[in-house]
Specification:
With about 230 residues, the protein is an alpha/beta fold. About 35% of the residues lie in helices and about 25% in strands. The protein has a seven-stranded mixed β-sheet, with helices on both faces. It has a two-stranded antiparallel sheet with strand order 2-3. A two-stranded antiparallel ribbon has the order 8-9. The N and C termini lie far apart (about 35 Å).
Length: about 230
């Protein structure tokens, strides 16, 4: 395995909040959104292999896009599953064994190479080989019950918004996926369930996940500002 870094890019969601637009291939700064995400990992010298996970109905288009843009590191384009964790598992199964696995949301095209470098440094220094990107929350957070009533106001200083990439040792992540029971909103949750400590490294407020048409407009402005 050496120091190989593999990447699983998950883009198999249903885009239910995008008003009928498939966010994976939505036009963004002149080309499909997913290409901006792929470009960053293709450019990262530490990355050896990329597996792109798409909805089953998008495989042909995704493969054509990978071919046309000449991505050398994308080894496979495979179909995802019903849940996010099923899609990540499919990507892991397609990935060659490596030292570190980066799992990234395809709908986060705003990352840059410095963020990836921070992540690799963080996971190498972490006690259990697990590190995730995150940013401190800016707003006061309220815990609300089913009746719309506030039940708690946790101290904002302790709260971070989790992002991707999330980076883990290959064997650790495979074990987490094999043993976790239930639904997980991210891979860190599954690794935490093993009793492992997960480190957080600074992400970026520009590394937002596109889930609504408004997010797409914000990301367009971000990329335009970068030229």
């Amino acid at each position: 395995m050496g120091s190989r870094v593999g990447v699983v890019i998950v883009a198999a969601g249903s885009s239910t909040r995008m008003e009928g637009v498939d966010k994976t291939f939505a036009p963004l700064h002149g080309r499909p959104l997913i290409t901006h995400t792929l470009d960053r990992f293709e450019e990262c010298s530490s990355v050896s292999e990329i597996v792109l996970v798409l909805a089953a109905g998008s495989l042909d288009y995704g493969r054509s896009l990978v071919h046309d843009r000449g991505y050398r590191k994308v080894s496979q384009v495979c179909a995802g599953g019903a849940r996010r964790q099923d899609s990540v598992r499919a990507g892991l199964d397609a990935l060659e064994p490596c030292r570190w696995v980066m799992v990234h949301d395809g709908a986060r095209p705003g990352l840059d190479l410095s963020l990836l470098r921070r992540g690799i440094e963080a996971v190498a220094a972490s006690p259990h080989g697990a590190a995730i990107a995150g940013v401190p929350v800016k707003d006061t957070i309220k815990v609300v019950d089913g009746n719309g009533l506030v039940t708690d106001t946790p101290p904002r200083e302790t709260l971070w918004a989790a992002q991707t990439p999330q980076i883990f040792g290959y064997d650790l992540l495979r074990r987490a996926h094999a043993q976790f029971q239930g639904d997980a909103t991210d891979d860190a949750m599954m690794v935490e369930a093993l009793g492992c400590k997960v480190s957080v490294f600074p992400g970026s407020y520009e590394n937002l996940k596109v889930t609504t048409p408004e997010d797409l407009a914000v990301m367009e402005a971000v990329l335009r500002g970068r030229g």
